[in-house]
Write a structure and sequence with these properties.
By secondary structure, the chain is of the alpha/beta class. It contains six helices and six strands, in the order E-H-E-H-E-H-E-H-H-E-H-E. About 40% of the residues lie in helices and about 15% in strands.
């Protein structure tokens, strides 16, 4: 199945990583690809410790990419890593590691920003739709309609109230 967690609220990646933890409880192999951001998060630290069952690819850089960054070298690095992962590394991992769950964290936003090719992404995600032997989760603030149209489940996360508005940004243990 292809699951999509998107929207402007907090909790999309947390929902995806919660799904990964649930999968680990069933001894599934999990592959995680983190787009646009680095590996400094409690979830990645914890999940990386399950070396036999979890593989993590961090495709972002130390700086989270925003729309204002488009055109700078950081974006070029993100583009190169994302393309190489989707085109070459992921197919090899699907054959050899055989994950039952693949998390594509922030892939929706990366496609929306034009950092990741939408057609390539849709070809990659097609192998997960409507299947019971392999599942994927795509997260991102914005997810293109082409991906949402393929999804078997879509959850929109919207902000009702957020401590960011009071100046509390990137709180350890809550946000990373």
């Amino acid at each position: 199945m292809l699951l999509v967690f998107y929207g402007k609220g907090k909790g999309k990646s947390s929902a995806a990583y919660g799904t990964a933890i649930r999968a680990l409880g069933h001894k599934w192999r999990v592959l995680i690809a983190v787009f646009l951001k680095d590996s400094r998060s409690g979830e990645i630290e914890l999940l990386s410790s399950f070396r036999r069952l979890v593989k993590v690819y961090v495709l972002g850089t130390e700086s989270f990419v925003t729309p204002g960054d488009l055109g700078n070298p950081v974006v070029s690095e993100n583009m190169a890593k994302a393309y190489a992962f989707l085109k070459y590394i992921l197919p090899r991992e699907l054959r050899n590691f055989r994950p039952k769950l693949v998390i594509f964290d922030e892939l929706g936003l990366a496609v929306h920003l034009g950092i990741v090719d939408e057609r390539l992404t849709c070809r990659v995600l097609k192998v997960f739709t409507g299947k019971l032997d392999r599942h994927a989760v795509v997260t991102g603030r914005y997810v293109p309609s082409s991906i949402k149209g393929m999804a078997d489940l879509i959850s929109e996360v919207r902000e009702v109230k957020h401590y960011f508005r009071r100046g509390f940004v990137n709180l350890e243990g809550l946000d990373y």
